[in-house]
Write a structure and sequence with these properties.
Helices cover 82% and strands 0% of the residues. It is an all-alpha fold and 76 residues long.
């Protein structure tokens, strides 16, 4: 959904499709990189032994969750 909204905005503002696509990549790249990094970090947790993973989640699960996804939530 985000991609579609940004692409539509870029197409509306740009003089050419090429310019729109360049603007789209510039705007989306930081967000995409962040999401990919967070996905990799989450995947690493799944390969931990379940007892270790569960203990870590009990201890710091809420804090870790908030810290991981805070960059993805725009400030009000």
């Amino acid at each position: 959904m985000e991609d579609a909204l940004v692409l539509a905005d870029c197409l509306r503002r740009a003089d050419t499709v090429e310019c729109a696509l360049e603007a789209y990549v510039r705007r989306r790249r930081p967000r995409v990189d962040c999401v990919q990094e967070q996905s990799r970090a989450a995947a690493q947790a799944w390969v931990l032994p379940s007892a270790v993973r569960n203990a870590a989640l009990r201890e710091r699960g809420d804090q870790t969750f908030c810290a991981r996804y805070r960059p993805l939530i725009p400030a009000p």
